[in-house]
Write a structure and sequence with these properties.
Length: 285
Amino acid sequence: MTVPLIEYFGPLARDYDVLLCDVWGVVHNGVAAFPQACDVLARFRRDGGTVILITNAPRAGASVQRILDRLAVPRDVCDAITSSGDVTHGIVESRLSERVFHLGPQRDHSVFSGLEVTFAPAESADYVVCTGPFDDSDTPDDYRSLLTAMQARSLFMICANPDIVVERGDDLIYCAGAIADAYAAIGGEVLYCGKPYAPIYKAALAKAAALRGKPTPLDRVLAIGDSVRTDLKGASSFGLDCLFVVSGLHAEEAGGHGAPDLSGLNATFAAAGVAPKAIMRRLAW
């Protein structure tokens, strides 16, 4: 099956009442906002639709909003934000009697905001919350010794961001998912928060239901994203249609940014056993 390439979102919009839209790679690239994508989301809302930004950012939704403000993403693009950091926060809240080792940068500390958490080094912690590498230039190989020591203690890991990599401008940087996968590969126990797992979709749709006054049928909900592993597989597993945007992670498989040859991307869908409703090079009305 060859997934259709569409140039404009407008004709598709009438089939949906709620959008669950990925952020990094669709709305911005970590450096600047994508104006056309922002216009699509704002126009969908003006026409009566509801937009929930759904992101694997390992920090609270309020912190994500501050990042969007800094990147000049207009406030009218969404009704609410649901982050994997929000899901992680709820899990940590249920384990306050235990000591936690935070594997990640200080900027992600908002995932613990408002909680009386006892922090400890890996040598004495009861479990680990991984929000990403300590430094954006790090690779999973840099954590091999640490992960081996953690696995020797059978430390349980909560992965606050299942993404493997994200774009920052023209560069790709590793995320918590890459470290968590490396830990799982050596026998470590990992709980992944965020896409493609169900809790973040349930949380996002609960927000949409509260805003609209009633739940929305799943066939009236469209997920938008740029990752096969998280956005497409997550939407498919939850029973949602997905619009796949190739301006992000899978651009090269589509023949490069703006190129018309999508055979490589369709091969990726076939290998993954999932397919989106349609493909767009970039989100535009």
